[in-house]
Design a protein that fits this description.
alpha/beta, TIM Barrel, Jelly Rolls, eight-stranded parallel beta barrel, six-stranded antiparallel beta sheet, about 25% helix
Amino acid sequence: MTTPDTPTKRPPGRFLYYYDGWGPFLRGGKPENLKECIDILADSQITTVLLSPNIGQSVSYPSEVSELSHWRPLSPESDAILKQGMGPFFTKVTYNVGDLWRQLGVDSFRLMSDHARSRGLEVFTSIRMNDVHMLGLDDGEGPYTDAFYRAHPEWRIPPEGGRGRHGVGAMNYAIPEVRAHKLALMEELLQRYDFTGLELDFVRGPPFFESDRPDLECDANTRWPHYPRDICSESAPIMTDFIEEIRAMADRVGKEKGHFITMCARVPSTLSGCRRVGLDPVAWHERSCLDFLTVARFLQVYFDYPLADFHRAMPGLPIQACIEHIVNAPHEQNHNFARDASLEVLRAAAAAAYAKGATGITLYNLFVTLGKNLDPDGRDFRHLEPKEIFQEAGSPETLEGTDKLYLVDATWPMFDLRFWDSHAPLPAELTPDSPLIVPLIVGEANPAQRRCTLRVVLDNSAAGVEMAVQINGRTQGPGRPALTPHLFEEPYDEKPPPPGNCLDFDVDGAVLDYGRNEVAVMASAPLRIVCIELAVRNS
């Protein structure tokens, strides 16, 4: 779709950092706080800042197409519901988003994008294709809606204000007017702010269309995703045509402004899952719509992305991997997202992504650790993300030799979205005649030179149970009771496992392969495994 006079593209291999519409305000509501959000990324390996304007169906800048969030004052009752849904710290900063413009005349989006360019960073805008935060508030008339959304309940999923997976429904892309509204918003951003890239974020998120099976009855309130409500693969050609229309607009605007506009997309973690929700990245590639693609999961750190499937289906297209901040541990006793990814986990996730074939990395939502709710005991676990990762995760070479904590992927019901995502193997049960066999992705070029410890975490003590661990068919260990809750210090884990539920096994690094490894756990009695981790340290 490019023309001979289109400016030259940048090469692949970006290292991107993502801010959503709220995130920059967690550091404070003043212009200098927003500049600080950029300054922490400058002079590091980060190449690109992704700035998202989306706050539900409203935006974080003074738009003529959409509407700045908090378009009217909230009643005390609605404010209390907002605090319950978003948490007290995030609710506070959501007011800051609009106040900076309405009270001081400061466009935070322009301030951040201009400052990022002044610090030598590439700046993209990232569009959440169907953000549904708090859309149910005030029956679809809440602070995170715009006039277009409020005027057309018949264009939602489900229509006429019915209740979908997050309350009032998201927008239906089968409606031409919905697509035209979204396209106009994208062009406004590219024309106004001189972004050199546009990301389409489809992980935020399905559904995009009504069901392929309207003849089958389903409960619209059923937990998402749900068949037959959320199956919409027959609508994929509509989205493909729209992607091509967006590409043409971005090329036209880039030509007018004299710089190439990179276009990319962030999609769920399986190609078949994408198709089930009306997305066909292979067709987008075949029509030359994308410059790169990012594979992601909703909110979770993930290690075993099936990147080879994407490379095979889209030859020549750079495929990035997305790293989020939540370690796949369950909600427990009212602790919400109890375990944040440590520096060692983030390093390992990046190294594993490169081992799986990622051409680059996106760090997504790491800043939200500043907005954590107080735990049920009133303890404050808010903290900054580890800045060291900005200096290390831009390439496998700078990650080599660092301490890492590799995880076997685990999930829990809220995020076990097999409708479109790959399936995490943990938690899982084993018996004496049915060992647990799971993949472990390792990104160490010289594992024989590292000191390695494998930890198996159970849901209860395994006292009196004989247990053995093999890696790639070679027995490791023997196991010994753990002395600490974690293999590395993790001061921000609200619910660390009791050491008595953990067994540690010394691992001969020479048995580890670069990339995929097989871990087999065998036991003389039934057990339930909730976590398997591999610590890799300098010898």
